[in-house]
Each structure stands twice: as C-alpha cells, then as structure tokens.
Amino acid sequence: QVQLVESGGGLVQPGGSLRLSCAASRSIFSASDLGWYRQAPGKQRELVAAFTSGGRTNYADSVKGRSTISRDSAKNTVNLQMNSLKPEDTAVYYCNADRRRWGLGNYWGQGTQVTVSS
Questions:
Q1: What are 45-54's contacts with CB under 8 Å, separation 24+?
Q2: What's the Cα-to-Cα distance from 111 to each of 15, 38, 56, 103, 118, rounded to whole Å?
Q3: Is 64 exposed, middle or buried (0-12, 13-18, 19+ CB in 10 A)?
C-alpha cells in the first residue's frame, strides 16, 4: 500500500509563506515522479509542481517564481515552499506519487488545506 503523509498546511495571510512536506516510504520515494497538486472548491485538481523524468521540474504558470519543489533523500520527503501567497492559492494541496513509468499506479495523499486570507 502506498502511503503519502502530508503536513504543513494552514491559514496564512496574503504575502506570507508556507512549506508543505510529504513523507513517503523509501521504495516509493526512489521509484516515483513526485509532485504537488491542488484543488480549490468548484474547480478541477491541477498541477502545482512536480518532478518529471530526468529529474526536471515542472511548475504551473500561476506559481512560477513563487514556489519551489524539492526532495530530501535522507528523509524521503518531497517539499513545496510557497512564497508571496495569494488568496487564489487557497485550496486543498495533494501530494502525488506517479509510478506509471515503472508500470505501477498513480497515488495520492489525503490532502492538506491551505487558506490564504487576511
């Protein structure tokens, strides 16, 4: 069973910062394209940032320059640092482990709420 455990969400004022973290098992961490997605009320789930083949990163245009995705191999975590947060960043953020390149499935964490409001 794939387990992805997210942490770090919460309430933050516009212009503030948050760091989301997703912990995975070693086997998942080493054989997945890891990333973060978000879903706002009434909207479809969308990519925020993700690692792709060859270790490249892919960011949504809406967060480019404000967000950084990173991996910590010692802790088996994938992190999302978000700065200059805007009310439109409010959403449930989901950690994703896409293992389809390895012939396996596509997995999601339980989600963590991020609310940007004054």
A1: 45/94, 48/80, 48/93, 49/80, 50/96, 50/98, 51/78, 53/101
A2: 22, 8, 24, 24, 22
A3: exposed
Q: Please tell me the distance from the alpha carbon of residue 107 to that of residue 118, in angstroms, as a whole number.
A: 33
110/114 Cα distance (integer angstroms)? 13
Name residue, tokens 């387990």.
3
Whether the per-residue pLDDT at 98 is higher than 90: the answer is yes
* Vertex 56: Cα angle to 77 and 4 (nearest 5): 25
Which of 46, 112, 54, 45 has the alpha carbon at shortest distance from 79? Answer: 112
CB 92 within 8 A of CB 112: yes
Q: How far is Cα 70 from Cα 68, in angstroms, rounded to an integer?
A: 6
| Paired residues of 11 in beta bridges | 115
pLDDT tens digits for range 51-81 = 998 889 999 999 999 999 999 999 999 999 9
Distance of CA 35 to the CA centre of its chain: 5
